[in-house]
Design brief:
Distance between the termini: 57 Å
Protein name: FAD:protein FMN transferase
Membrane topology: Lipid-anchor
CATH class of the largest domain: Alpha Beta
Radius of gyration: 24 Å
Bound molecules: flavin-adenine dinucleotide
Pfam families: ApbE
Strand content: 25-35%
Number of helices: 10
Structural class: alpha+beta
Strand order of the largest sheet: 1-2-6-7-10-13-14-15
GO molecular function: metal ion binding; transferase activity
Order of helices and strands: HHEEHHEHHHEEHEEEEEEEEHHEE
GO cellular component, one term: plasma membrane
Largest sheet: 8 strands, antiparallel
Oligomer: single chain
């Protein structure tokens, strides 16, 4: 047989040629993995043609990035950089990492823009209502307790100057829960950019960043949940190639007492958990940190103010609010192009 006449060396060369063809083929490899971070889960899906990219190595690097964000910004870790700042009962400036500086600066910008609806100093109130690292209170806090705690809050009493963080009241406590998850997603995206990965989706606890679409020019398709705690169902499917989507809602993280529902989102203007008909806010933006922060801020505002704010700022948002007949949606003009026609 012809086959037998071919020398071993030729077979080897032929196999090499085949391997070369395979590695040069146009079909990218899909790599997908998940893990745990920030009291929740994360997942990464990416496509690559580079044979040097391997899942184990990329996951190891992603975990290092996320551990770093945790070590800087977690209020659940008493040794984190942020916890140390919170424990430092002084108005003396504290030198902080560039990463913490970046997140606090952006949070203060959005606080100013939203007239304090987003306020990263509400931590003592979050804890008082039992949604932080501390245990839930036995009963609703008294007006006096609320008043005492509110004196320690107010983003206007927090400043970043020359890479230093300064609080005007030594008992202030900074809580980045609403923005640092989004920042963590952006950091992982940055890592994948550095690894020259051009198509990816990164997600932490539902906050998502995508880049480059999927192979064959397809967009990433994402589901926005129905705002109900009894089941996991899809409200809308959105699709895009590049960008970030974050959703805030009060339908999962809440407790009920004496027939009243207490949300984990605090209205800094009253010190109370929000009490209105807006139940879910999704925001699409260039970066996940901003999308995450705006989603919480708009949820605090309530339906009418959130609509007006989205129109004024031309934000891409989808609001879901309760009516007597069920749920209604408000979809801003900038969000409409993201809606998928096939759901
Ligand atoms: P979002 O809407 O994104 O944020 C809501 C949270 O923001 C509230 O729970 C409250 O903390 C705060 N908030 C409420 N009102 C306001 C307001 N008006 N302005 C600003 N902020 C407000 N959880 C754990 O159980 N264990 C952990 O080890 C843990 N580690 C974490 C580490 C990091 C770095 C971060 C960022 C979070 C961590 N969490 C941990 C918290 C957990 O994942 C949170 O539930 C989450 O960050 C809140 O996100 P969300 O999407 O539920 O709500």
């Amino acid at each position: 047989m012809m086959f037998l006449k071919v020398s071993n060396a030729k077979i080897w060369l032929a196999l090499m040629g085949l391997a070369f063809l395979v590695s040069c083929s146009d079909a990218p490899e899909k790599i997908a993995f998940s893990g745990e971070t920030m009291g929740t889960t994360y997942s990464v899906t990416l496509y690559t043609k580079d044979p040097r990219h391997n899942q184990e190595e990329i996951k190891r690097k992603v975990d290092i990035v996320l551990e770093r964000v945790n070590a800087q910004m977690s209020t659940y870790d008493p040794n984190s950089e942020l916890s140390q700042f919170n424990q430092f009962e002084s108005t003396e400036p504290v030198v902080i990492s560039r990463e913490l500086e970046r997140v606090v600066t952006r949070a203060i910008e959005i606080a100013e823009q939203t007239e304090g609806a987003l306020d990263i100093t509400v931590g003592p109130l979050v804890n008082l209502w039992g949604f932080g690292p501390q245990a839930r209170p036995e009963e609703e806090p008294s007006d006096k307790e609320l008043q005492t705690v509110r004196e320690k809050t107010g983003y206007q009493k927090l400043r970043v100057e020359n890479h230093q963080l300064i609080k005007d009241n030594p008992e202030m406590y900074v809580d980045l829960s609403t923005i640092a998850k989004g920042y963590g997603v952006d950091r992982v995206g940055h890592l994948l950019d550095q690894l020259r990965i051009k198509q990816y989706l990164v997600e932490i606890g539902g906050e998502v960043l995508t880049k480059g679409g999927k192979p064959d020019e397809a967009s990433w398709r994402l589901a926005v949940e129905k705002p109900v705690s009894t089941e996991r169902a899809v409200q809308r499917v959105v699709q895009f190639k590049d960008g970030a989507l974050a959703t805030s809602g009060d339908y999962r993280n809440y407790f009920e007492e004496d027939g009243r529902r207490y949300s984990h989102i605090i209205d800094p203007a009253t010190g109370y958990p929000i009490q209105h008909n807006l139940v879910s806010v999704s925001v699409y933006a260039d970066d996940t940190m901003s999308a995450d922060a705006y989603a919480t801020a708009l949820l605090v505002m309530g339906t009418d103010k959130a609509k007006a704010f989205a129109r004024k700022q031309n934000l891409a948002v989808m609001l879901i609010y309760k009516t007597e007949d069920g749920f209604n949606e408000y979809i801003s003009d900038a969000f409409k192009p993201l809606l998928s026609e096939q759901e």
